[in-house]
């Protein structure tokens, strides 16, 4: 017991990050190797560094690598957004998809698609949609104090409202546009090929979130306690709003409404690594990335040559977990 | 030498549109231990939160070490002033020791990692409260009294100059009540330190405080030394029911009729 004093309880768990990183790399290798054509690992390793112009090399460099990297970074965005929303609402059940934030972003993007706005507008419009959805959630659910049940209900009703709006937009959409819109809506990674935007957003927000990590740790203990220990909660909340909206919006505008990564990834990491955000944030980014990468690999190989929308798979995984957390009792009343 | 830590000047307290306390004026000086007594809903917790700068008073001015409370940065203030809350809010899965470590937050830098000294201070707080064996437990699995001791350990780890304690004896068995009030007294009677605590047990208040503030919740209040305020007359005025001394246990023990 004595030497506990000298070892930092969180720093002692940092090596776990290595484990998450190794898992992520293994998932990446698996994803690059499997598909309609499987590429053996030794060849994969060689082709990764030497583009010899062969068919395998072209599949790797033009299709699988960009797709795998964007799947990974979008999963990481969603996982991080989940952690931030959970602090904001002090509830492990908070997830951008469940609470309608993704829905707000998706409705905004579909509206933009219908209006024929160029692709470059999708992310800023999604951001506006996500932000509007979070603000609406808070304005409607906050009555002097936070009530977990009220918040969840409000979020779920908002999500239903967004999906009604989405249905409205879809019914207005010309038949030619409809299949693309629907597939995108269910969460689809087959079109995202440039991992640069999600990668940059991820790196910047993760750095920013890590700077907030000690304050986030206190925020989970309640507004007054955090306040009394020197955290300016108003500023912190606004920062989390903006950051969570940006993360969700980036993910949604690129890959559609992929649900439950923000719920599953933080939950897995908390079980293994605890709730300190200095460790939780980077570990969740890795776990969320790994999760979506594996889900996407499954989505494009399970019923090949057909592709499943990846959002369908994450939801099949996430819904049971959500129900389990809710029924365990602690989830509903954090 | 006595130095003013916290000064209240004609402070009005209100809750839900009802005035609880009118023009409260008092000074908490270094070395003092104040007890706040009053019936339920008299504004005791509101007073502490106002003193901690967590809530704005309905009127009047508060100064901490000469500077209006509103002018202090939250972080600076958190190094000076600590608060023990009565509300019980669970959080996410964590351990008792990591929770106590959050008390060091106002002393950390950005990207702050607690230093060996911070760990030492937090661990000493855990030991002072006799929580060593529970250090790795999830606070959600602790009993009410254990959680209360953990909250006090967080406060000790914070090392404030002025402690504002909302019912520190809550959930504690009589043995722990005496031991922990004694621990707090030792800690916050050091030079430059002071404490203000809300108590429900009159006898504990009489035994551990130098000065008492009686809040009746209807706008009226009385404040003074424990000798002036701890009399059956004053306490009967406060609670609106007769209080008499318990002769067998000297006259420092009071009981309700």
Summarize the model shown.
The complex is a heterodimer of chains A (334) and B (257). By secondary structure, chain A is an all-alpha fold.
Structure description:
The complex is a heterodimer of chains A (334) and B (257). Chain A contains 13 helices and no strands. Chain A is mainly alpha-helical and 334 residues long. The longest helix of chain A is centred in the N-terminal third of the chain and has 35 residues, at 55-89. The relative contact order of chain A is 0.17. By secondary structure, chain B is α/β, with parallel strands linked by helices. Chain B contains nine helices and twelve strands. In chain B, strand 4 (59-64) and strand 5 (67-68) form a beta hairpin. In chain B, helix 4 (116-128) crosses helix 5. Chain A binds chain B through residues 1, 4-11, 86, 90, 92, 210-211, 213-215, 217-218, 220-222, 224-225, 227-232, 270-271, 274-276, 278, 330, 333-334, and chain B through 49, 52, 54, 74-79, 81-83, 85, 87, 89-95, 97-99, 101-103, 105-106, 108, 110-114, 116, 119-120, 123, 132, 135, 140, 158.
Q: How far is the N terminus from the C terminus of chain B?
A: 41 Å
Please tally the β strands of chain B and state the result. 12
> In percent, how helical is the residue content of chain A?
over 70%
| Model regions low in confidence, pLDDT < 50 over at least 5 residues of chain A | 330-334
Q: Largest protein interface?
A: A-B, 39 and 43 residues
Helix count of chain A equals: 13
* Total discrete domains of chain A: 1
Look up the CATH topology of the domain at 4-86 and 161-256 in chain B: Rossmann fold
What's the helix-strand series of chain B? EEEHEEHEHHHEHEHEEHHEE
CATH class of the domain at 4-86 and 161-256 in chain B: Alpha Beta
Proportion of beta-strand residues of chain A: under 5%
Physical arrangement of strands within the biggest beta sheet of chain B: 6-7-8-3-9-10
* Molecular shape of chain B: globular
CATH architecture of chain A: Orthogonal Bundle
